[in-house]
């Protein structure tokens, strides 16, 4: 990370961060900041909201208007911020458990409303902060402290879930493909509506050890070797994509944005008084 990014966008008195050695979250936090810098946003008009979990530590390190909220409720708080101050660029940083388990109801309704919030999911396939329990994105048959004989639940495809609920921008990147992830986040911020960008991270401490994924380098290499860009996948035969996962931009649509529609209701009410 460049000294400019650290100086301009981080609370240096809160560094170094407390993520485990090899965790992918630091890379993804940098991708968020790089996207903000690339877009030239006024940092005083950016609000970063997080819930609880490994991912949600990010808001404490980032030097914007920040809100560290309760578990699963980041999108509920962010909705309140956006309705009260629609001129702010509201960015939610959340984890796979925070977003898709306890916060799943808030996710589908924020997407349904198409409110102009950019949600970045730091997905490490596990509850890393609280002891390695399996999460809604832990792959089937993989292990967690609460799945000692293997997880039998089907894992969520979070971008597909958000798109089905009404999100107008969805994408996926990885901690390995950091530059692409920054670009996807940029596009999500530029979208005037609900955007969700999933970042596939790595958790060598709990998920990696429990599932014998090897070293940090092995886990990053796995991301490199198993991610296929959606545009490339369209041109490949099915057998070449089997067992892989897709990255890139999945949905980019234009629909009415919630806070603008809400203001129209207020204007109608004021005229009819």
List the helices and strands and how they pair.
Elements: H1 3-9, H2 25-39, E1 46-50, H3 58-61, E2 65-68, H4 74-84, E3 89-95, H5 96-100, H6 104-113, E4 117-123, H7 158-165, E5 169-174, H8 178-190, E6 195-200, H9 204-210, H10 216-226, E7 227-229, H11 230-233, H12 238-241, E8 245-252, H13 258-272
Parallel strand pairs: 1-2, 1-3, 3-4, 4-6, 5-6, 7-8
Antiparallel strand pairs: 5-8
Helix pairs in contact: 2-8, 6-7
Brief rundown of the structure:
With 273 residues, the chain is of the alpha/beta class.
Structural commentary:
This protein is 42% helix and 17% strand. By secondary structure, it is an alpha/beta fold. It is globular, with a radius of gyration of 18 Å.
């Amino acid at each position: 990370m460049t000294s400019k990014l650290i100086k301009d966008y981080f609370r240096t008195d809160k560094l170094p961060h407390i993520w485990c050695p090899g965790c992918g979250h630091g890379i993804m936090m940098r991708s968020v900041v790089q996207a903000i810098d690339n877009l030239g946003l006024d940092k005083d008009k950016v609000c970063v909201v997080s819930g609880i979990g490994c991912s949600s530590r990010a808001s404490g390190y980032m030097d914007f208007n920040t809100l560290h909220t309760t578990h699963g409720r980041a999108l509920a708080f962010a909705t309140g911020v956006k309705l009260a101050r629609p001129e702010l660029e509201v960015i939610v940083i959340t984890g796979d458990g925070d977003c898709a388990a306890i916060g799943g109801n808030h996710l589908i309704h924020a997407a349904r409303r198409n409110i102009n919030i950019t949600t970045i999911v730091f997905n490490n396939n596990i509850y890393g902060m609280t002891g390695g329990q399996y999460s809604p994105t832990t792959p089937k048959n993989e292990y967690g402290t609460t799945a000692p004989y293997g997880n039998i639940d089907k894992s969520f495809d979070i971008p597909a879930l958000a798109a089905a609920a009404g999100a107008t921008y969805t994408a996926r990147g990885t901690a390995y493909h950091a530059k692409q992830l920054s670009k996807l986040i940029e596009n999500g911020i530029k979208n005037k509506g609900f955007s969700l960008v999933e970042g596939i991270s790595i958790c060598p401490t709990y998920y990696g050890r429990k599932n014998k994924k090897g070293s940090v380098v092995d886990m990053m290499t796995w991301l490199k070797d198993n991610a296929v860009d959606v545009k490339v996948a369209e041109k490949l035969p099915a057998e070449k994509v089997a067992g892989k996962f897709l990255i890139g931009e999945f949905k980019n649509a234009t629909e009415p944005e919630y806070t603008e529609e809400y203001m129209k209701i207020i204007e109608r009410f004021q005229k009819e008084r």
